[in-house]
Automatic annotation (TrEMBL):
Organism this protein belongs to: Lutibacter agarilyticus
Gene Ontology MF terms: transferase activity
Pfam families in the record: Pribosyltran
Keywords: Transferase
Record protein name field: Phosphoribosyl transferase domain-containing protein
Coiled-coil intervals, chain numbering: none
Flavoprotein as UniProt keyword: no
Lineage: Bacteria, Pseudomonadati, Bacteroidota, Flavobacteriia, Flavobacteriales
Superkingdom of this protein's organism: Bacteria
Domain Phosphoribosyltransferase: 8-65
Length: 113
């Protein structure tokens, strides 16, 4: 649904920066990393604003991740949402709009180079 009629991106030889809103267990993030790794990127960097200590350790131990940037690993972690003023779910339609806008911006910047 997110790709529309486009092919998935080719990650071969690229540095992938995967940004997540936070990690409670790290399981979903690690599943994504495993899929990204299959596409042969040069490097995978994970960026998180917040993570539980156990999730951070689990993510750091992945052999596929080259760097983890995490701003906060609080001792009082219960849920990712507790560290946000507004933690509403993002609707699929909104994601599709942002992906289209990003693609348009990338196309425009490629024309200007």
């Amino acid at each position: 649904m997110y790709y529309g009629h486009k092919k998935p991106l080719d990650f071969r030889g690229k540095i992938i920066l995967l940004v997540d809103d936070g990690a409670a267990t790290g399981s979903t993030l690690l599943s994504s990393i495993n899929l990204i790794h299959l596409k042969n990127p040069v490097e995978i960097v994970v960026a998180l604003p917040v993570a539980s200590n156990s999730a951070y350790k689990k993510i750091k131990q992945s052999p596929y991740i080259h760097r983890v940037i995490c701003l906060l690993i609080p001792s009082n972690f219960n849920t990712v949402g507790q560290f946000y003023e507004n933690f509403n779910q993002v609707k699929d339609e909104e994601v599709i709009q942002w992906l289209k806008k990003t693609a348009e911006n990338l196309s425009m910047s490629n024309l200007n180079t």
